[in-house]
Amino acid sequence: MAHSRWKTVRERKLAEGFTESPEVAEARYEIRLSMALAQAVYARRTELGLTQSELAERAGLTQAKISRIEGSDTVPTLPLLAKLARALDATLDIALDEQSTRVAFTAHHGEAA
């Protein structure tokens, strides 16, 4: 099977000169942001050995809210992000530009699990 057959439909269309509408590009960017946050929350939570319920309790949230955040199903507010950072005993670092997104929780010194 030729490698070109493995390409996604989007990759094939882009190679043929197709351009996405601004709405689709914006939606793709928002999804990328949400997924980056979800991955960062999950990684830090599991690094601390916490369940979603334990993190929710520490943050003053519900387990369902943590699940929605980790599932990229919600866009958290700044106050909620601050609660998460405190509950994860970390600093939330977010770097955004047109080409890349980086979201990470940097542990404070003296881990508190």
From TrEMBL:
Keywords, sorted A to Z: DNA-binding
PROSITE patterns registered for this protein in UniProt: HTH_CROC1
Signal peptide: none
Domain HTH cro/C1-type: 41-95
Protein name stated in the entry: Helix-turn-helix domain-containing protein
Organism in which the protein naturally occurs: Streptomyces gamaensis
